[in-house]
Amino acid sequence: MQPFMTRPVFLLRWLLALGLLVPLVPAGAGAAVPVSTEVLRRQLATRLPDTTRLRLLTAMCYRLHDEQPARALPYGEAAVALARTLPADEQAPGLLRSLLNLASCYANLSNGPETLNLLNEAQELARNQHDTDALMRVYTAQGSIYHERGDSTTAWRHYQRALQLSQRSGVSGHTRMKLLGNVGSLFFFRRQVPQALHYDSLALALARRESDSTAESTYLSSLATYQMQLGRLPRVKRLLTQALAISRRQHAARNQAEQLILFAMYYIQTDQPDRADAAVREALALARQSGYLERVLDAYSILAAEAAEHDNYRDAYEWNKRYVDLNDTLNNRQTMQTLAAAQVSYETQERARRLRQLTAQQAEQGWHNRVLGTAVAILAMGLLVAVYLHRNLRRSRTALAANNRALEKASAELRAVAVFKDKLYAIVAHDLRGPVTAFAGVTSLIDSYIAQNDQAGLARLPALVRQASDSLNHLLDNVLNWAVSQTGELDCRPTPLLVTELFAECQALYQTTAAASWQHITMAAPPDLRLLADRNMTRTILRNLVGNALKFMPAGGHVHLEAAPDPDDPRMVLLSCTDTGPGMSAATVSSLMSGPALPEPSPVPQATGLGLGLALCRAFVHRHGGTLVIQSRPGAGTNVTVSMPAAKG
Questions:
Q1: What letter would DSSP give residue 605?
Q2: CA 500, CA 527: separation in Å to the nearest integer?
Q3: What values do phi and psi take at 295, rounded to 5?
Q4: Which InterPro entries does the protein's record reference (predicted)?
Q5: Distance (Å, whole) CA 362 – CA 57
Q6: Could you give the CA distance from residue 330 to residue 324 in angstroms, rounded to a whole number?
Q7: Is residue 106 within 8 Å of residue 114, measured between CB atoms?
Q8: What beta strand segments (E) does 451-566 contain?
């Protein structure tokens, strides 16, 4: 299984898998069960007759087999071993009950081969004792094992046998209820939702009639699953709420885990990601607590898919790694060789029984009828094998198509990353030309001034070097901030900031650069005006606006910083940077405002650095919920206005 997939495909896969959530038929239904496991433990610690001890061991196994199957297993094994030592006239009833209970434990632990071995033995005992109720439970449990393995044809064959026995006398309501629930689950697995709703509703009615609240909770969950498949989400929430309330009252950790997983899927369908995350994490804790590894696997799958959906690929990778590790563990525990041996053993016994029955009933028929019957049986088996192989081939094709889609998606993402990287490298290389050229020009000036003994020129060199280094440092800051902002690691931490202090700091930073070109920087802002913004991001915005203005403005130009409350929105403050530079055309302004997040490097030498700095300003302003507007005309200078949140009070 692969948790990384789109939401609709993932939801469909998971809903179909939920068809297997209906538990196996608990053996021993209707037996007298003591009030608590503690009472049973105290009784088992005393000296008791073998028949009494067998009854208590069987009851203890049945008591624990649903919620704590690992703890129930030793009691079930001890009960079977003790039943085998009883005299022949006392052995059969107790051995039959203990075999059914132990089979339920192995089924809940997902050990299909051992479950089938125990059920085969229980089937023979039930036939010999003419116990219709036990035989019906065996058929139902066998069907659920094959259902869990995805072999719906074999599962339906066993369920049909159980349905044929369901109306006979001696069959309990609990046994009918479990069969109806499992049949509903099978129809749902086959995507026959109306039939699934019918059988599950019958099972729910029987559970309420029998006052079995555990079963009622289970079938409410199943109905919620079917309604989710039909898109009836209001009914889903109502059914799941009832089911979860019952499970919480009973402290049934496994049922709670299943129902919380369903709630998580409901919240995903209704776009409530926070509630979905809380539900699936609670389900994961309960599943771990009760050792319910299948639900742990489902929780890992949902968490991985949701993390990927929200582009949190690091968490998605970790959840997916846990999913794969646990899935491998479960698969290793169910070896195919053991299951094949158990299946062959069962089919051999079944064929032998049928052959003996046909021989006894039809001894008078001739050799030709026997040959015909054998031929029909061989053809039927060949057809079943063909259907099985066809289904496996279809599943393999579906899995291959899904893998191809995932590979295509990954390739597209890699290509996008490569394009982004190349574009960033191009901008950095393009924008580095200006500062590097400035440094080269300074070295040429040094040689010229020294040759001419121009002391005044030499005195101006430190300012030129400082201007070139400030330009290079400013570019590197922009590149670093842009890269960090794209990875999501740059947090926005708003604090109250005094606008006059921000303006004064920016003016002091560029005062030397402006003076070297006979440029002027002025500012105007109310003395008590404050912003609610991230200090580093705001300084970067102002630095880029003033730096760009100075860079494109001729000698003797003027840059003016101004701040005022937004007259249209009292919650915002307007910061503007106006220069007397050459200005820009309407087409250039439109391209800058509507271009991509990372623009193409400009071939015009005068445009060095404009693209990345402005893109960074746009990103930081949008991070604060504000806007950036450029007003410019050729020959009339440029005005850039940004809106930022105002500090309250």
A1: G
A2: 6
A3: -75, -30
A4: HATPase_C_sf, HATPase_dom, His_kinase_dom, HisK_dim/P_dom, HisK_dim/P_sf, Sensor_HK_Regulatory, Sig_transdc_His_kin-like_C, TPR-like_helical_dom_sf
A5: 45
A6: 10
A7: yes
A8: 495-498, 520-524, 530-533, 558-565
Residue listed under structure tokens 């087409």 = 587
CA 193, 195, 198, 201 dihedral sign is negative
Q: Which of 211-215, 359-363, 598-602, 613-617 has the lowest mean pLDDT?
A: 598-602
Helix (H, G, I), strand (E, B) or coil at 498: strand
Amino acid at 604: V
Quote the tokens at residue 443.
Answer: 């070295």
Radius of gyration of the chain (CA): 38
**Dist. CA 590–CA 128, nearest whole Å:** 89
Q: What percent of the chain has pLDDT over 70?
A: 79
CA distances from 57 to 122, 372, 623 (A): 18, 50, 65
∠ CA 448-450-456, rounded to 5° = 90
Least confident window among 145-159, 237-251, 343-357: 343-357
The average confidence (pLDDT) of the chain is 80
Buried (b) or exposed (e) across 44-79, using 16+ Cβ within 10 A?
beeeeeeeebbbbbbbbbbbbbbbbbebbbebbebb
Check residue 7 and give its pLDDT. 38
From CA 383, how far away is CA 385, in angstroms rounded? 5
Residues 34-47 pLDDT 10s:
447 788 888 888 88
| Alpha-carbon distances, residue 646 vs 169, 307, 424, 549, 571 (angstroms) | 80, 34, 33, 25, 5
Q: What is the pLDDT of residues 166-218, one digit of tens each?
A: 888 888 888 888 899 899 888 888 888 888 888 988 988 888 888 888 888 88
At 330 the pLDDT is 73
Distance of alpha carbon 339 from alpha carbon 187, whole angstroms: 24
How many percent of the chain have pLDDT more than 90? 16
**Which residues are CB-contacts of 228 (< 8 A; sequence separation ≥ 6)?**
15, 236, 262, 265, 266, 269
Helices 213-229 and 193-209, axial angle in degrees (round to 10) = 160
Residue 165 CB neighbours (<10 A): 19
Identify the residue whose tokens are 């009854």: 55
Q: What is the mean pLDDT of residues 326-346?
A: 58
Contact (CB, 8 A) for 252 and 293: no
SS (H, E, C) 523-538: EECCCCCEEEECHHHH
- What six digits make up the tokens of 320? 């997916």
- Provide the pLDDT confidence category of residue 68 given band limits of 50, 70 and 90: confident
Higher-confidence position of 132 and 440: 132
C-beta separation of 627 from 621 below 8 A? yes
Report the C-alpha gap between 204 and 450 in whole angstroms.
100
Let me know: does 646 contact 568? Beta carbons within 8 Å: no
Q: Residue 550: which of 592, 579, 586, 512 has the closest Cα? A: 579
- SS3 of residue 576 by DSSP: strand
* Cβ-based neighbour number of residue 105 at 10 Å: 29
